[in-house]
Design goal:
alpha+beta, Thiol Ester Dehydrase, Chain A, five-stranded antiparallel beta sheet, two-stranded parallel ribbon, binds coenzyme A
Length: about 170
């Protein structure tokens, strides 16, 4: 099967629904993922969150993407060695060149099938053209009340991030 080389195609900027880029990543947690306390290292989970989010963003943009911001990552419960970690990523919002992705992390205790939601994170990705410059992404088609609610919440987070960014750009007093 030949896949289009999107980096050399004109981007398809027609609106795309959330479902077209939704991504689930699953990985069994091994001893090599453990921290000194014996639970899974937070950094291992953050890396997988970024990977799952990046796949969803790249699927939506049909471009390569970079992470520009990762915030609001909450660790609600520990993850244990032997758990199956499942990362569900979906777009919540698109701007001109940036996209917000929500990643929900669940841990399955495989022998019992018990599933616990352990984390939720929000990340912003930017699509890049062949020259590595930010490039437009297709608008996100929000179709359900839940998707509209997520969009509104994402807009509030974006306003906060841009305020933080502007403050960080201010020269020191
Ligand atoms: C991502 C990058 C290309 C953006 O460059 P830039 O000069 O800030 O570009 P712009 O100002 O045009 O911003 C591009 C988009 O990112 C958004 N953005 C930039 N910084 C942001 C922040 N802190 N929070 C939220 N959005 C941000 C802008 O609002 C803009 O979105 P829009 O086009 O939807 O309105 C640049 O910051 C970069 O290369 N960063 C390093 C990325 C990286 O290495 N990531 C880790 C490995 S993947």
């Amino acid at each position: 099967m030949t896949t289009p080389d999107r980096d050399h195609d004109q981007p398809d900027l027609r609106p795309r629904p959330v479902s077209e880029s939704e991504t689930t990543l699953a990985q069994l947690m091994l001893l090599t993922d453990a921290n000194p306390a014996g639970n899974v290292h937070g950094g291992t989970i953050m890396k997988l969150v970024d990977t799952a989010g990046g796949i969803a963003a790249s699927r939506h943009a049909q471009r390569r993407v970079v992470t520009v911001m990762m915030d609001s990552m909450t660790f609600l419960h520990p993850v244990y060695v032997g758990d199956l970690l499942m990362l569900h990523a979906r777009l919540t919002w698109t701007g001109r060149t940036s996209m917000e992705v929500e990643v929900v992390v669940e841990a399955e205790h495989v022998p019992t099938g018990r599933v616990t939601q352990t984390s939720i994170a929000y990340l912003v990705y930017v699509a890049l053209d062949e020259a590595g410059r930010p490039t437009p992404v297709p608008p996100l088609l929000v179709q359900t009340d839940e998707e509209r609610r997520r969009w509104a919440a994402a807009e509030a987070r974006r306003a906060h991030r841009l305020t933080q960014r502007a403050r960080a750009d201010e020269p020191p007093a």
